[in-house]
């Protein structure tokens, strides 16, 4: 069975390439959320022909949703021969903007040197295509497997996933008893299993001043100078503190095994989108957005307190300093256990197909697993897919065809093992135990 499955996937190599090209040619750029309906229907139509029941679910009234740019998701479900568990493959259909520096057409799906090129090739239309081919090969060979298989194409992952996986999770699409195991074929490299991600705290810090004529700044109080004092404190105290915190989470790249903070933006004074001459004013407000990524060993309350304590110390020492902090986004770190069923099934598949032990990694940034864990309360979830992590969002993005084929084999074996309780995959399990 397993050899037949591998051969069937090899036979589908051309189909896999063509499917990846077709998906790349639908330019689902987010923002604004172009061509979502077209892409969702492309996936839905294909899977409907293979006996899946198709549902289109619009993330009504979620950020960016409008009649012009509907946040349309597709979920395809196929029931097997008898009741059993459900394996779900979830891929986001949105891609980021093109950016500069391309030497090929980003939406042509060009094939060259064993790679498919295009925006989204790696992140993550190649992964969606590999999952679809894996599932199609499996159901051709074993149409009466127990349980169910689902494939979803969801929107807005690149902008937080609120109209996509978060919306669907709220409706119960990512919870038991409907779904038991989830694989997200994000580009984490074909030999890596991504167990989860670090936590996120986005916040806006505002410093307050008072407005006055710019020729007599001593009559006012400059909020931008107060913000400068905040940044000085960050440099002297906060950044060294964060760099000193290390995690046991296997985060890649290694630099992300410490806590990090990015200053996302600073705005103070005259609005930026105004191209006339400014009027002379002392700015009475300056706002800074911070993007703090934290570790599973850290508590989110403590993460926030570090910043608040620093600001309070500054307020005690610096005349007229006052501030406010506004939370923008919180995501707790998540890490699936290594002995969870989906992890063991994919690990066995990697050992059998690639002949090596998997690397277990944690993503530096968050992805849709957060919604599945927090809203769906489903913890048997990982990211596993063919793309190369470093290629995501870059010019001349590509996915290696051999990697897609290999990861499709891994996904098919893992699905078979999960739906049969491992009974149909004795070799894979044997190797898994030996390690
Ligand atoms: Zn992605």
UniProtKB/TrEMBL annotation:
Domain Peptidase M20 dimerisation: 196-317
Family: Belongs to the peptidase M20A family.
One GO MF term attached to the UniProt entry: metal ion binding
NCBIfam families, per database record: DapE-ArgE (TIGR01910), PRK13013.1 (NF009558)
Pfam families cross-referenced by the UniProt entry: M20_dimer, Peptidase_M20
Domain of life: Bacteria
PANTHER family, alphabetized: ACETYLORNITHINE DEACETYLASE (PTHR43808), ARGE_DAPE-RELATED DEACYLASE (PTHR43808:SF32)
Keywords associated with the record: Cobalt, Hydrolase, Metal-binding, Zinc
Statement: the UniProt record of this protein carries the keyword Nucleus: no
Protein name: Acetylornithine deacetylase/succinyl-diaminopimelate desuccinylase family protein
Native source organism of the sequence: Stappia albiluteola
Cell membrane found in the keyword field: no
The protein's required cofactors: Zn(2+); Co(2+)
